[in-house]
């Protein structure tokens, strides 16, 4: 088969690799019908995630059709159309029992982490992928949900919701600032309303993304880097700061922005993957009663979010802006990496080859 292989910082290629096989009775092999690229893949290519070794097939998001299941897979069979969750979970270890799938102790790929695809085992940017613990790591797609909608449930919708909105403890009427209006930030905006956010402020350097944010629930936008960005945000609150600041970029500067804009007693929910240390001013934060949360997505909200997508309550499909065939994978990366010029949100790469990029 063909797959997108990482060859060290800045290097990747779409090349021939061996087909994946069932290696454990709990595995499934899935034919990937649709996949996409995450901001985290760009971090990997920058060298920010050193655990990813050269030779690894990238990608942790995908929708596909099961071609084969291992002998102990019970709830799924060949032919099922499924979402591949970005997190594998055995479903029965101590952490899975707590709903902490991100730290699944099942040792396929690695013990103690749920994020294995495109990280510690081969990922979904390929024609086929081996999925460990298939019963728990795959979600059957109900009729009426398209591949493009479903692929947003592999990672970005649960991430924005669980690590942004739930960890940030958004409450009815809250003012929520989302710093970074990429797909993950937009997913946080699109789900903040589930907990009753009153005002949702999108913040980004990219004006196109700020314009798009209104389609995903943002009520206001502020250009990051404007000299008075903070005053603009404070003017949308009672003057004391936002109730919840969600960081969805992954650089020191935006974490500091989140801390600077939150009200006393408020929450900073860090979602971004950081490649460098970030200064934490505990000497100033404690007396402001600030709560800070971090996290790797668990994906335990995926079944609920899938229901909402099926009911048309979350505009998942609108996140797909550009479409490519598998043979155009490098173009898809280029388009996603130059999002400020190409106006890309999520680039969708699917089996049908020769598809013209569409905006
Ligand atoms: N915690 C998790 O489980 C998890 C899961 C998935 C993704 N992530 C992380 O979430 C982050 C966002 O992912 P994405 O796919 O949306 O990435 P992305 O690169 O598409 O989006 C990042 C956005 O930040 C904006 N930005 C850059 N500098 C900025 C600044 N100074 N001020 C304001 N905005 C700025 C960019 O213009 C862009 O719109 C990444 O760090 C990714 O690794 C975390
Ligand atoms: Zn991701
Ligand atoms: Zn587990």
Task: Write structural notes for this entry.
The protein has 359 residues and is of the alpha/beta class. 25% of the residues lie in helices and 23% in strands. The chain is built from 13 helices and 15 strands. It has helices spanning 39-46, 94-97, 134-137, 147-151, 156-166, 183-192, 207-213, 229-234, 252-261, 282-285, 302-310, 329-337, 339-342; strands at 2-6, 12-16, 28-36, 62-69, 81-84, 128-131, 138-140, 175-179, 199-204, 220-223, 242-247, 262-270, 291-293, 320-325, 346-350. Strands 3, 4, 5, 6, 7, 14 and 15 form a seven-stranded mixed sheet that branches. Helix 9 links the parallel strand 11 (242-247) and strand 12. Helix 5 crosses helix 6 (183-192). The longest helix has 11 residues, at 156-166. The chain is globular. The two termini are 28 Å apart. The protein binds nicotinamide-adenine-dinucleotide and zinc ion (2 copies). Nicotinamide-adenine-dinucleotide is lined by residues 38-40, 42-43, 155, 159, 163, 179-185, 203-206, 209, 224, 248-250, 253-254, 271-273, 295-297, 339.
């Amino acid at each position: 088969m063909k797959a997108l292989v990482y060859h060290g910082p800045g290097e990747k290629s779409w090349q021939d690799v061996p087909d994946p096989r069932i290696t454990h009775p709990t595995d499934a092999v899935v034919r990937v019908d649709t996949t996409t690229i995450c901001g985290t893949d760009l971090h990997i290519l920058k060298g920010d995630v050193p655990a990813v070794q050269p030779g690894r097939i990238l990608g942790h998001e995908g929708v596909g059709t099961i071609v084969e299941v291992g002998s102990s897979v019970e709830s799924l069979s060949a032919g099922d159309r499924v979402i591949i969750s970005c997190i594998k979970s055995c479903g029965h270890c101590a952490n899975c029992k707590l709903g902490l799938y991100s730290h699944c102790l099942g040792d396929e790929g690695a013990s103690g982490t749920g994020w294995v695809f495109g990280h510690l085992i081969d990922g979904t940017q390929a024609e086929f992928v081996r999925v460990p613990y298939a019963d728990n790591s795959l979600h059957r797609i109900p009729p009426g949900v398209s591949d493009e909608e479903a692929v947003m449930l592999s990672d970005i919708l649960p991430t924005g919701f669980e690590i942004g909105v739930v960890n940030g403890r958004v409450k009815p009427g809250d003012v929520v600032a989302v710093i970074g209006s990429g797909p993950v930030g937009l997913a946080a905006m699109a789900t903040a309303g589930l907990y009753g956010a009153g005002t949702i402020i999108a913040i980004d350097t990219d004006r196109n993304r700020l314009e798009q944010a209104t389609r995903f629930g943002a009520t206001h936008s502020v250009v990051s880097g404007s000299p008075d960005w903070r005053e603009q945000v404070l003017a949308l609150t009672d003057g004391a700061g936002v109730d919840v600041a969600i960081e969805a970029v992954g650089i020191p500067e935006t974490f500091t922005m989140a801390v600077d804009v939150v009200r006393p007693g408020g929450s900073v929910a860090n979602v971004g993957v950081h490649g460098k240390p970030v200064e934490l001013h505990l000497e100033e934060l404690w007396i402001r009663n600030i709560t800070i949360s971090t996290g790797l997505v668990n994906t335990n909200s995926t079944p609920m979010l899938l229901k909402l997508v099926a009911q048309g309550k979350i505009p998942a499909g609108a996140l797909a802006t550009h479409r490519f065939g598998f043979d155009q994978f490098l173009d898809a990366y280029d388009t996603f990496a130059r999002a400020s010029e190409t106006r890309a949100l999520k680039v969708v790469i699917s089996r049908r080859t020769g598809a013209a990029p569409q905006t």
